[in-house]
Amino acid sequence: MKNIRTDLAIEAREMYSEDRDVEIPGVKVDQEENEDYTVTRIEIMDEKGKEIMKKEKGTYITIESKYLTFDDEESRNTIVGCVSEELNKLFGEENNKKTLIIGLGNWNITSDALGPKTVSKTLVTRHLFKAYNKEEDKDLSEVAALSPGVMGITGIETSETVKALVDMIKPDRVVAIDALASRKLERVNKTIQISTAGISPGAGIGNIRKSLNEEYLNVPVIAIGVPTVVDAATLTSDVIDMTIDSLIEESSNGKQFYNMLKELKEEEKYRLIKELLEPFDQNVVVTPKDIDEIIDNLSIILSMSLNKSLHPGIN
Predict the structure, then answer these.
(1) How many CA atoms within 13 Å lie on the side-chain side of 245?
(2) What are the domain boundaries of the chain?
(3) Does the CA dihedral 183-189-192-193 come out positive or negative?
(4) What letter does residue 212 receive in the DSSP assignment?
(5) What task does this protein carry out (predicted)?
(6) CA-based angle 262:264:268, to the nearest 5?
(7) Which of 72, 138, 162, 198 has CB atoms 3.0–4.6 Å from 221's, for a disulfide?
(8) Which CATH class is domain 9-233+284-310?
(9) pTM, 2 dp
(10) What is the pLDDT of residues 256-291, one digit of tens each?
């Protein structure tokens, strides 16, 4: 498996299959193509699949669509319908379950603010259930939400904060939202990953903390993430590949040299670029220049999807 950073299971599978015409043992893949979006479901079923994919066992649902960056109502509703449908399958039909939504990330850094911004737009109802002493409601479910910040702000491990909160309010499930990292620029801000395998806060920028998963929290954890950044070394490697392809097409001389460069193993090329970038900054990631508007739009899409799935009475 190539040592290239990605939080997306679909990309981990692609990297394994690039030079092989076989599927990964212990991994089940199903894809559904729609006119407006593509849904890929990857299930890591055993230790063999976990070892090859370098991902925890569980289901990973990837939704890809250009409409994720569109801020008009029709585009949003299309994606919200798809995301809420996938969430409904994971949530099940029982409406009276208690949900704790955790918005992971640093609200002071735009590309890492997806979790907190989504939480700020999500309909919370736990205080209403407590005030009116209700156990269930036909239109609403009991929802609490928190953005715990990051260790650099609070001095507390995010996992410790979430664990304490779970032990105190005893939800039936936790939904964690975070920004992720992709290995392909074309997937940045155009992909949603929903996973039953939990999540590691800070993974998107390579600052991995203790995982939030069912084993640690003792309740099911559904992780929702959008890749908002791409590793600089990965991006540079892809740009070099595109440049070489262009030179091969345009050049009448020197094709042998360009082909030799193209045959350089991707992992070796990535390692070389990474070493060259390290003197400037050891943790370089890249995000689009209009990330402010994109994060606002994505947070609306995710909060609408959660509201629709968790509160059946909401139109």
Answers:
(1) 6
(2) 9-233+284-310, 234-277
(3) positive
(4) B
(5) Initiates the rapid degradation of small, acid-soluble proteins during spore germination.
(6) 140
(7) 198
(8) alpha beta
(9) 0.85
(10) 655 655 566 666 666 666 666 666 555 567 788 889
